[in-house]
Amino acid sequence: MTQYVYTFGAGEAQGNANMRNLLGGKGANLAEMNKVGIPVPAGFTITTEMCDVYYKGNCQYPPELNVEVENGLKHIEKIMGKKFGDKKNPLLVSVRSGARASMPGMMDTVLNLGLNDDTVQGIIKATGNERFGWDSYRRFVHMYGDVVLGMKPESKTEKDPFETVMEKVKVKNGLKADAKDNEMTAPMLKELTAAYKKLIKDKLGKEFPTDPKEQLWGAINAVFGSWMSERAIVYRKKEGIPDEWGTAVNVQSMVYGNMGNDCATGVAFTRNPADGDAHFYGEYLINAQGEDVVAGIRTPQQITKAGSQKWAKENNISEAKRKAEYPSLEESMPNVYKQLVDVYKKLEAHYRDMQDMEFTIQGGKLWMLQTRNGKRTAPAAVKMAVDMVKEGLITKEMAVGRIEPKSLDQLLHPIFDPKAPKKVLTKGLAASPGAGCGRIVFSAEDAGEWKAKGEKVILVRIETSPEDVAGMDAAEGILTQRGGMTSHAAVVARGWGKCCVSGCSDIEIDYKKATLKIGSTVMKQGDWISLNGSTGEVMFGKVPTVEPSLAGDFGQIMKWADEIRQIDVRTNADSPKDAKVARKFGAQGIGLCRTEHMFFDGERIKHIREMILADDVEGREKALKKLLKFQTDDFAGIFEAMNGYPVTIRTLDPPLHEFVPNEPENQAIMAKEMKISVEKVKAKVDSLHEANPMLGHRGCRLGITYPEITRMQATAIFTAACELTKKGLVVLPEVMIPLVGTVQELRNQKAIVKEVAETLIKKYKVEGKLHYKIGTMIEIPRAAITANQIATEAEFFSFGTNDLTQMTFGYSRDDIASFVPEYLNKKILKNDPFQVLDQEGVGQLVRWGVERGRSVRPDLKVGICGEHGGEPSSVKFCHRLGFDYVSCSPFRVPIARLAAAQAAIEHASERAENLKLQNHTPIRAKASEIEE
Amino acid sequence: MTQYVYTFGAGEAQGNANMRNLLGGKGANLAEMNKVGIPVPAGFTITTEMCDVYYKGNCQYPPELNVEVENGLKHIEKIMGKKFGDKKNPLLVSVRSGARASMPGMMDTVLNLGLNDDTVQGIIKATGNERFGWDSYRRFVHMYGDVVLGMKPESKTEKDPFETVMEKVKVKNGLKADAKDNEMTAPMLKELTAAYKKLIKDKLGKEFPTDPKEQLWGAINAVFGSWMSERAIVYRKKEGIPDEWGTAVNVQSMVYGNMGNDCATGVAFTRNPADGDAHFYGEYLINAQGEDVVAGIRTPQQITKAGSQKWAKENNISEAKRKAEYPSLEESMPNVYKQLVDVYKKLEAHYRDMQDMEFTIQGGKLWMLQTRNGKRTAPAAVKMAVDMVKEGLITKEMAVGRIEPKSLDQLLHPIFDPKAPKKVLTKGLAASPGAGCGRIVFSAEDAGEWKAKGEKVILVRIETSPEDVAGMDAAEGILTQRGGMTSHAAVVARGWGKCCVSGCSDIEIDYKKATLKIGSTVMKQGDWISLNGSTGEVMFGKVPTVEPSLAGDFGQIMKWADEIRQIDVRTNADSPKDAKVARKFGAQGIGLCRTEHMFFDGERIKHIREMILADDVEGREKALKKLLKFQTDDFAGIFEAMNGYPVTIRTLDPPLHEFVPNEPENQAIMAKEMKISVEKVKAKVDSLHEANPMLGHRGCRLGITYPEITRMQATAIFTAACELTKKGLVVLPEVMIPLVGTVQELRNQKAIVKEVAETLIKKYKVEGKLHYKIGTMIEIPRAAITANQIATEAEFFSFGTNDLTQMTFGYSRDDIASFVPEYLNKKILKNDPFQVLDQEGVGQLVRWGVERGRSVRPDLKVGICGEHGGEPSSVKFCHRLGFDYVSCSPFRVPIARLAAAQAAIEHASERAENLKLQNHTPIRAKASEIEE
Predict the structure, then answer these.
(1) pLDDT tens-digit map of B368-377
(2) Cα–Cα distance between A456 and A526 in angstroms, integer?
C-alpha cells in the first residue's frame, strides 16, 4: 500500500532531503534536519502524491489516509508529551504547505491549530501564561477564518474584516486604533477572540468549528485547495512549475515565539541574499509568531550586531536607540545566537549552498522550522558561487551550474548612471537590486493593463500580497511602504531579478485618489519615477542609465564557463557599434549580420528606392552601384571589429515593399525626391503589395529574380574583405543565403557569390590569405527536410529558428497576439515558441537538418541565429545536437556562454552515467544520440 | 568503348524497340521494323548519349564519332549500292532528329542531303528524271538553308525569303505567284536552285557548302542544336520532358516520293486518332516529299476510299471531282495500298497499340520511314483501349494503364449545348475535339499576354509553326486557315487535349489590321468566338455548354479502374449540388466539406458579421443561434446526397476578416444594415487586420478562442445527422478540426464536438446507429512532425497539402506569381508545387505523418484533401504511402480513380518484381516500403 504520511522528530525521520518530489521541499528538509541533529519540532508530512490523488479523485481522500494521519498525530503526541484536543495539556499543531519548488507566500498556512474554548484553558494552565493563550487563540481564529473559511476582504481597497474588528476592540479598550498588537492585554485578546468568532458566525451563518480534528481536516483541505488558487496558478505559470507536481502538507507540533520576551521568531540566511556577502544575515521579532516576520507588518530586528548597526545607520537611528529598541539577537539572546550560528554553519556545509532558514525561540530554546537553498539576486548568486569555490565548498562546475543563465540579465542591463543628476525623494530598503524606471500605478490590475498597452510601470503598494504577483510581474519595479527585506515584495522581486524598494515608510499612498506623496512632492498615477533596488533610493522622473561592469566575480564565472563549454557563442550584429559591444560580452564572431538594416539610413533609402522603381536591369544596376560604396564601408567596419573572428553576412532578405512608403503623404515626398509622378510611386507600391509578405517575394527569391542585388552585395563584402586582408587583418566572411527551400536556389546564388569572390580575390592578390564560406540559413521547413541535398552546396547551416518556428507552427509573429496568450492560459502551449525553442516540433526539423546535412558533409558547420540562440534551454538543445555555435543578441551572449557551459556539464554527467562501462566518452554529442 | 552509332537496314538492326532511351523513339522503331520484316531504307542512329556528351563537352564531338559515322555511311552504301558524294550514282540521305518522347515538329530535319552541282547530275543520270533531280536539289538547298544555315524570316509577319525567291522565279517563267510547286518544270527548278544559292551567298557572305561530308556534319550539328532551341525548350517544359534526355540523330538513305506520279508520301494511323474509330486512316500526297504533308501546305488526299468519300462530303466535293482530283490511295495505287494494309496490321499487332506511321512510295514500292504509338484525343484513347480489350489485343490492366489520367479532363468538362442557339459562321476540320470559347488574338505573343491578364483567348493563325507553341498553350482553342488533320496545329492540340479547328479555308486573316473575316462577318481582336473541335464548327460569340456523358467506353474504363484500384476516391464539396455532381463522377464520399462557404449567402453573412461584432460570448452565441438553422439544413442536404458514404466536415477555417468588408463604401452598407456606426465597423475591421493572414487567427485557433463557434457547428452537424439517421439514412459524419499544430488543440476542440455529439445522439435516441469520427487536417508542418502525439486523439488524418505546401515551402499561394514563373524557367522548381505534390519535401512530411500516426493508431484513417488529391502523380504517391482515400474536386474524381488504378497496377508489378522469391505479396503498400 502506498505510504501517504511520513513522520519526523526527535532526531529521526522516515524521509530525507532527496525525497523533495514526494515530500515537498519543506517536508524533505525537515526530515533531513532531524537526521543531522538539528532541533526540529516533531511532525509528519502528507505527500505530494496525495495532492494528485485528491485532485484526480474529485477532491476526496482515500479512507486509509485518515488512519495514517491518526498515527502521525500519535507520533507527535508521543514525542511532545501532549495530546491533541486534550483539555489539560493540549498539543497544538501548525499545518503548512510545501511544494517541490519554493513558492513563497503562495500557499496557505494555519498555526496554533487545536485551540477551542476548552483547550485554550489547558494551554493557559500548562504555560501559566494567560496572555499567550488568548494571543494564540485569536491568531488561530483569524488565520483559520481567513485561510480555511475564506473570510477575505470583499475588494482590494477594503480592509481585512479581522483588522477592523481588532481596531474596534483596541479603541473600545482605550488603545489607539493603530496600537501595536503586543500592547493588548489578555482580557483584550480574549474579547478579540470572541469578537472574531462572532464575525465569522455573522458572516458565514455557522459557528467556528470547535473540534480539533475537524479543524485539522479543514486546514489540510485548505492547503491542498490552495494549490489550485488563482494566485498559485499565476505564480507557477511565471516560474514554469507544472500543475501535476502538487503540494505536500506538513503537520507539525507548534513551538511558540509568542510566549513571552524570552521567545522570538525569525528568518535567517547563511549569506546575504541581496549582494552575496559571506556574512550571516537575518531578521527576528521578539514575542511573535513566524507570519509576523514574513508578512512585514512589524519592522524586524537584525540577527547580528554588525547587521543591526548597519541597519541603524541606514535608517538614521542612534546607537543608543538601536540598543534599546532594536537590539540584535547576538546582543539580546547571546546563547541562542550561538546555537543558531552552529546550526547555520552545519546546514550550509551539509547542503553546500546558502540556506534560507526559519526558526522559533521558545523560552530560550532554538527550534528550526525550515531550511532551504535560499533565493538570491543574480549578483549574489555569482558572488556566492565564486566565494564557495574559493572556500573549497563547491567545484567550478557546481559554481557554473548554479547560476540561472536568465538571471544574468540583471548583471548585463544598464544601471543608473552614478554621475547623472538625480532628485532622490526618499530611501527605502534595498530589497532587490537593479534599476527600475516607469510610470506609477497603484494596483496589480493597472500594472497588467498598462504593461499590455506598452507602458513601463512601477507598482506602488502599501504592502504586497500573493494576489499581486501578476502585477508585480508586469512592473519594472516595486515600491512598498511597509515590509522588510524578507517581506513578500522583497522575496518575490529578488526571485525574479526585479528591482524592489520595500519598507519605504516615508511615503504616503492614497489608493482612492491614486496619489503618492513623498515629503512635499505629490505624484499621481502615470507620473514617472525611478527606483534603485541596489541602494533603496526613490528618485523623481526618469534617471539615465549606464552599462554594467563585466569584470570581478562575473568575469570569473564567465571564464570558468568558457573553459567548460564546447560550442562557440556568436552574436547577431548589424553594425560596427553592435559588433564592438558584442565583443565586450565575449562574442566569438557574428552569426547573423542583416544587411537590410544598412539600407534605411539617409541617402541609402533613396538609392534602394531608385532600384525598386527601375524598369530594367540597367536601371537597377545603376542604383545598386550607388549603394555599393555604403555597403563596402559597413562591412569593412564590421570586419575590423571582428578581426580574427568569422562574420556571417546574410544577403538581402526582406520583401522590397518594406523599403517604400505606404502612406499617400510619404509617397508624395518620395515622388518629389525621385522626380517622378506620385502615380508611378503608388503604382509600384501597389504592385509590391503582398497578401502574406512573410511567405512572399523575399530572401533568396529576390536574389534569384534580381541577381544584380546579390552581385552588388557580394562585391561589397569581398571588396571590404580583400582590402582589410591586404592590410593584414584576418577576415573570415561567411556569406549566408536566406530563405532557401531547394538546393537549386542555393546553387544559383552561390554561383554568383563565388564568381564575385574569386574575381576579387584574384584582383587583390589575396589568394590563400582570405578564406570564406558560402552557406545558407535553414529557416524553411523544406530546407531542413532536404538538408542532405542542400548540404551538397552549403558549407554551413545557420538555423533561422524565428522563421522556422513561424512556418513550422504556421504562426505569424505579427499576428499571434490574438490567440497565443489564450493558448498559454489554456495550456495548449507550454511556452511561447518564439521565446523557447519548441523541441518536439521545430526542434525535430533542426535535428533532421543537422543529421541529414552532416550525412553528406561531415564537416558542415552548424549554428543557430534565431532569438533562441540566447535562450538557455534552447542553447542546451543546440549543444546536444552537436552545433558548432549559437548566435544571439549582444546582451544575451553571456547568458548563452553560461548555458552552453551548463549544457556541457549536464551532458557530460548524463553521458558518463550512460557510458559508465565504456572506455571513452567523446566530447561532443552526435545528433543521433538525442532521442526523438 | 561506348558505341555511339547503331546501324539498321535489310532486315537487320543493332537496336530494337526497347532501346528508345538510347536511340530515340524514331531510331528504336526503325530498328524494330527492320527486325519484323517491314521495308525500311538503310541507315544508322547516333545515340542520345552523344547529345549529352555534345552539350557537356561544349558542343564538341569525341574523335571516335567520326570513325563510327564513316562506318555507318559504308553500311548504308553497301545495302543501297550507292556511294555518298559519288558523281555517278550518289547516295542521298535524310538527317532527322528523334528523341525519347515524341516532340512533333519541334526538332529539325534535312532531306536529300549529299546533293551538289555534280551529284545532282549523277541523280539525274541514275533516275533518268531531270525534274526530280532539280526538285530534290532545290528542296535540299531550301531546307539546309533554313535548318542548318539559319535563313529564317526576320520577323513573324515577314515571308520566308525562299518563298519570295520562288514566287519571283514562277512569275518570271510565266506562272502565277501562287502556282503549285508541281507546275514548275525542270529548268525552272534548276533556275530556282541557283537563285536559292545566290540568296544564301548574298545573305551570309559565303557559298553554299558543296562537300557532302561537310553538309552531313552541318546537319548533325543542327539536329543536336535544335534540342536546345527555344521552341523545343518551351515544348519540353509543357510536357515535362527533362533536358538531359537529349535527342538521337537518324541518318538514313533517301527514298523518293517526288520522283513522279508513281511516287507518293503520306502519314497513316492504324485507327482514327481523333475519335478512336477502329478503321485505317491517313493522308497522302502524290509526287511529294514528307514535309509537304506535315507542313500542311498542300491539302492532302485520303488513304482509304471510305475516308476519301467522307472527306469529300464534308467539303461539298462531288464524287466525280473527288475521283478525278482527290482519289484515295486505295483507288490510285491499289497494290501499294494492300502492302500498306499488311504493314499496318502487322505493326499494330506487334506493338499492341495504335500506330502513327510515315511512309514513302517510290516507283510503286512502299518504304516505311517511321512508326510510333500514335497520339490521340482522350475520347479516342478511351475508345481504342476498350476496343482493344474486346479484340483481345490487350488486357484490362493495359487498357487502364494506357489512358493518361489528366487527359480525362477533355471528357469531363462541358461541351457546347447541342440545343443552344448558335450562329455557325463556317466549318473547318474537326482537328482536336472539345469546346473552346474566347476572345480572338492573332499571335502567340498576344495569346500569352492576354492569358496572363486573365482573359480567355482563341488563337487564330493562317497556320501554326513550332514557334507558336507557347501561345497555343495559352489559348482555349486554335483556329487555322490552312493545314489538315496532321498539320502542326492539329497534332499539337490533340496531344494537349485542346480544342482545334484547322484547315478552315473560308476565313480571311489580316494580321496587320488584326481582323478575321468570315463571309460578311468581320471580327476584330478581342471579339468572342466559339470553336467546336469535335465538329469543326466556328461560331459567333459565346455559346453555352452542357455536361458530358459518363457512360459508354468511358464508363467501361472507369469500371475496370474501380475494380483494380485499392484506395477510395472522395470529393471536395461544399453544397448538396456539388455533392450530387460528385456522386455522378463516382465519388465515394466527401473528403472535405468547407463550412465557411455556407456563410456568405444572403442573410447568413449578416449573422456572421453580427457574431464578429459582438463584444462578448452572449452576443456571439445569439448570432450563432441564427446561423444554426442554416447550417443544419446545409448538412442535411449534403448527408442526403451522400447517403451511405462518409462526409468529412471541416469546422470554420478562414480568418474572420474574410467575412467583413474592407472598402469604406461596403463598410457603410454593413453599418446601415447592422444599425451601428460606421466607426464601429471600421474599428472592428481594422482590429481584425493581419500582417500574414495565412499564418494568423484562423482554423482551430478560432474554435479555441471562440468555442461557441465550434459548438454551434457541431450542433448543426449532429442535429442533421441524428434527424436523417432517425429517417433511416446512413449518415457517416467525420468532423475535421483544421490547422492543428499541437495535440492539445485537437484535444480542446474534440472535447467540444464529442460532448455535443453524445448529447444529441442520446437526445435523438440513435445510439449505436449513428457512427461518427473526429479527426484533423494535417496541414501544418508541426502536425506532421508530431503526428504520433496527434494520432492519440485523431481518428483520422486528412492531409491538407495546399497549406502544407505553403508552409513547407514558405510560399504564399497569393504571392508566388512574382517569382515562381521565374523559378520554373530557371529550373529551380521542376513543377509548381501547388499543382504537383513535392514528394521530396512536402511528401516527406506526409510520409512521416502517416508513419508516426499509424505507429500509435494502426487503424488511423488517412486521406488527402488538398488539390493534389486529383493530380495523378500525387495520387500514386498517396497509394504508395497506404492512404485510405484521396479527395478532389468533383471534375477530377474520375482522374483520381484512374490514377489510383494505375498506381495499383504499377505498384503491384514493381513489388511482384521485388518480392519474386517471397510467398505472398500484401495488397496494400506500407508507408515504410517507400524509400526516402
Answers:
(1) 999 999 988 8
(2) 10
